[in-house]
Design brief:
The protein has one domain (7-288): Spore Coat Polysaccharide Biosynthesis Protein SpsA, Chain A (Alpha-Beta Complex). The chain contains eleven helices and 13 strands. The chain has helices at residues 38-48, 63-68, 73-81, 85-96, 111-117, 119-122, 142-153, 218-225, 236-244, 264-277, 282-291, and strands spanning 7-11, 32-33, 36-37, 53-58, 99-104, 127-130, 134-137, 157-162, 172-181, 184-196, 207-215, 250-253, 257-260. It has a nine-stranded mixed β-sheet with strand order 5-4-1-6-11-8-12-10-9, sandwiched between helices. The chain has a two-stranded antiparallel ribbon with strand order 2-3. The structure holds 1-O-phosphono-alpha-D-glucopyranose. 1-O-phosphono-alpha-D-glucopyranose binds at residues 111, 131, 134, 171-172, 196, 208-211, 235-237. 1-O-phosphono-alpha-D-glucopyranose (G1P) binds at residues 111, 131, 134, 171-172, 196, 208-211, 235-237.
Length: 294
């Protein structure tokens, strides 16, 4: 039986330059999609996938994330004294959600480096890694889908999706061979090779890595052994390539819709679609959109 995955690492130390000036004094992970910070979507996905511990890798200027997942006595007292029960429940649900540990990445040296910072907190067990910028709407949480594949193959698994050639160079890309699994022939892949942000003409396929991973603890050794790569940063993709020499790694083309909330257009799309789906807002918002002339 493969060891149970109990922990999820959330690298959250990035500077969020794509959202300046909004992110000058506020972490990008706290930008709200409708009324919930981006990072809370990822945390809820992890919890609904059976994860018990969240490890956030943060940096300077990220204390709002810690405050968000902490108890807010003043706010709770105020809401309680004013009899605002519904709001009180919403606020409490966030801090009651789960235990979160924090570790700092002092310098932004890359995703691989951020994951390596979590080494002590993860210990010698498999773990999930969630890039909160990738918000995934799915019937079965994307991470749960990946964990099922991990449990079957007892090997690291990466989420992938097909992306058009013109945007492939923004991603890690896999060269992978489809494997038949549960009667399905086009969801599970055994990875042959992977490369971080290749030129469109050199990309080995159109299967891009999306920010959900199930990793085994050997990845830490591999991260320590790779040199800075794309963007002069220590890349997780390069470490996975190193690990691939000694063990099989799988990719899973997940079911669900992914939004790139780290990008302005992706963020807007997610905001509009999530708002349209809300019971309390959807109808009025849809009517409002219909009145716009463009
Ligand atoms: C990171 C990873 C990349 C992956 C992407 C998914 O890149 O390095 O392999 O495809 O997330 O969102 P970033 O977007 O942080 O540059």
């Amino acid at each position: 039986m493969p060891a149970k995955v109990r922990k999820a690492v959330f690298p959250a130390a990035g500077l969020g330059t794509r959202f300046l000036p909004a992110t000058k004094a506020q972490p990008k992970e706290m930008l709200p999609l409708v009324d919930k910070p981006i990072i809370q979507y990822g945390v809820e996905e992890a919890i609904h996938s059976g994860i018990q511990n969240i490890i956030m890798v943060t940096g300077r200027g990220k204390s709002a994330i810690e405050d968000h997942f902490d108890v807010s006595f003043e706010l709770e007292n105020m809401l309680e004294s004013r009899g605002k029960k519904e709001l009180l429940n919403i606020v409490r649900a966030v801090s009651d959600m789960i235990d979160v540990s924090y570790i700092r990445q002092k310098e932004a040296l890359g995703l691989g480096h951020a994951v390596l910072r979590a080494r002590e907190l993860v210990g010698p067990e498999p773990f999930a890694c969630v890039l909160a910028d990738d918000v995934i709407d799915a019937e079965t949480p994307c991470l749960r889908q990946l964990l099922d594949i991990y449990e079957f193959f007892n090997a690291p698994v990466l989420a992938v999706m097909e992306v058009p050639k013109e945007s492939i160079s923004a991603y890690g890309v896999v060269d992978a061979e489809p494997i038949s699994h549960n009667g399905c022939k086009d969801r599970v892949f055994r990875i042959r090779d992977l490369v971080e942000k290749p030129n469109a003409n050199e990309a080995p396929s159109n299967l891009a890595i999306i920010g959900r991973y199930v990793l085994t603890p050997e990845i830490f050794h591999s991260i320590s052994n790779v040199q800075p790569g794309s963007g002069s940063e220590i890349q997780l993709t390069d470490a996975l390539r190193h690990l691939l020499r000694s063990r099989p790694i799988y990719a899973y083309r997940f079911e669900g819709k992914r939004y790139d909330a780290g990008d302005k257009l992706g963020f807007l799309k997610a905001t509009v679609e999530f708002a349209l789906r809300r019971h309390d807002l959807g109808k009025d918002f849809r009517e409002y959109l219909r009145t716009l002339e463009y």
